[in-house]
Design goal:
By secondary structure, this protein is mainly α. The chain has one domain (2-70). Helix content is 83%, strand content 0%. It has helices at residues 2-11, 15-23, 27-40, 45-70. α2 crosses α3. 3% of the residues are buried.
């Protein structure tokens, strides 16, 4: 079960864990709230999730490029 959980966390872009660290809440709690909001709001939080995933990927890409230039 732990193996499956690790695979899902790695493939989910790390959005929930990032938000959990920033807010100071466990990432599992953020995931549960995200799931509840998705059901209540008929899936619109999925667009927010994808936006955050895109933003985090761009942010890490730029950070790696700057680090490469500085080295």
């Amino acid at each position: 079960m732990e193996f499956l959980r690790n695979i899902i966390e790695r493939s989910s872009f790390g959005v929930c864990s990032y938000l959990g660290q920033k807010i100071g809440v466990a990432s599992s709690r953020v995931r549960v709230y995200f799931i509840y909001l998705s059901f209540v709001a008929l899936g619109s939080p999925i667009l927010i999730y994808l936006f955050f995933a895109f933003w985090l990927n761009i942010k890490s890409y730029l950070r790696n490029k700057i680090q490469f230039i500085l080295d």
